[in-house]
């Protein structure tokens, strides 16, 4: 049986009601925050601002699409990202971006305004041709599924779209196709990837590739990518403990416990890939202390730095996008007053766990 908080106490305007004036020291100036409007491709940005001299400045973030802020995890050292304002009241922070993000800071309990940082897409296109047929591979940085890709050919100085598709999830951010009937002689191509407003991603395009598509064969790369290696790459190492972690668990869905599917799906765990490679979770399990077990029975790849959400209720895996999966439970799984979540590989190897002992509704592990 899920335990619920039964009362919330709030004191509103007590000082004003008594006709008293709060001490001036109780009102700290709001911190400020500034960052570049965007960056191009995966990498870091510098966040700066002002805060009361010597105050601890805490960074909060959210993927642009979700707008659900949480304390920014410090992946290098553990814990969350903080810094101290200098004696002149200035601070500097660095943060890696893999998509569009939102940020704010807090100092002495006072929050700054919210800001957003967009990310420009860097597409890379590799092409090879033989007898009028052209094989095309387009990769996106950041590696994001579902981005609209347009393969364009220059015809007498005018760019014509000859193929359109979307980046996929095997692995994320890659689109492949074959162009047939491209004739003979030299053709010029480029790839354009459309902006993604939901994730605050900006459009990008490759450099042009000149390719002999005739009776012979040829190849080329645009956008700074590299051709496939001549020998097969070394198989990636097996995932180790800490490569994928519980980065957030909402164990007490907001509002009244109605047991509706909407309420059940508001209870979820969020898994983060902290490694530098894509990891397939197929066969992995998520379980609680009471022995409820969810098994990932189909491919579920997480690119480096990306999230996957596992909702308690019913739904279709891959909707609204490839980051969402559903336990299909008809009852709540996680205990509000205290529970432990466990993540294991299909071979039973322990990868991560997250424990809580009080009902605060959610934890960032």
UniProtKB/TrEMBL annotation:
<keyword id="KW-0732">Signal</keyword>
<feature type="signal peptide">
    <location>
        <begin position="1"/>
        <end position="26"/>
    </location>
</feature>
<feature type="region of interest" description="Disordered">
    <location>
        <begin position="212"/>
        <end position="239"/>
    </location>
</feature>
<dbReference type="InterPro" id="IPR036415">
    <property type="entry name" value="Lamin_tail_dom_sf"/>
</dbReference>
<feature type="compositionally biased region" description="Gly residues">
    <location>
        <begin position="215"/>
        <end position="226"/>
    </location>
</feature>
<dbReference type="Pfam" id="PF00932">
    <property type="entry name" value="LTD"/>
</dbReference>
<feature type="domain" description="LTD">
    <location>
        <begin position="231"/>
        <end position="358"/>
    </location>
</feature>
<dbReference type="InterPro" id="IPR001322">
    <property type="entry name" value="Lamin_tail_dom"/>
</dbReference>
<protein>
    <recommendedName>
        <fullName>LTD domain-containing protein</fullName>
    </recommendedName>
</protein>
